[in-house]
Sequence to fold (202 residues):
Amino acid sequence: MFYSMQQAGKPKRWLDIDDYISKGYKKTPNKWFRGEVFTAPVPFMDIKLLHNHPANTSMSDFLAPYMSQCGCHFFRDDLIAALEAVGVDNLHKYPVSITDPDDGKVYNNYKAVNIIGVVSAADMKKSKFELGDSTPLMDVPFDDLILKENDMKGLLMFRLAESLISILVHERVKNHLLEKGFIHGGFNDHIEFYKLEEIAFL
Fold:
C-alpha cells in the first residue's frame, strides 16, 4: 500500500517565503517538483523562519522535521537518516541554513531534498477524477486515486507523474517512521500520511 505524504498541519514554525524569493532561490533553472536530476548548480540556501506570533494559531515553537514550503522540500537530517535506513535511496540532498529571527539561532541540520523519480502509476480506468478539457498529464485532480501496483519500479518514495506535486511513499516507510517516533499515528501528526482513496489530489 502507498500513502500520500504531506507536511504536518499542526501549529509550527514556518519558513519565510518572501525571504526565499527575495534571495533569488525561486528563479534558479532547477525545478524541484519534476523529480529529475539537476543539471545546473544548486546554490547554498540561507533562509529564515517567520517570526513566531503567539496570537497566530497556526504557529508554535515546534520546528517540524519536514517542511514543504517555498516550492521545495526540507528534511531534517535525522528524518533523512530514517528514510535511508528503511531503503529510500533516491534523495539528492543540498545543504541549507535556516535562521530563527526571534533568537538568532541558526539550524544547519536540514537539507533541501530533490526526490528523484517520477512514476506514471495511476490507473486512469479505475481512478476517479474530473479533467474538463485538460489532458491527464501532471496535475490531474483525483478524487480517488488507484495505483497500478506493478508500476512502482521498486521505489519506496516517488513523485506521481499524473500529479507531480504529490509525494507517494510505501507503507513500509510510514511504519518505519512510526517506529522511530517521527509520527504517532494519530490526528495532527508531525508528518501526515493519507490513504489514496481518502484524499483529493488537486
Q: What stands out?
A: The longest helix spans residues 77-85. The first strand starts at residue 2 and ends at 7. Residues 2-198 form one domain. Residues 139 and 163 are 4 Å apart (CA to CA).
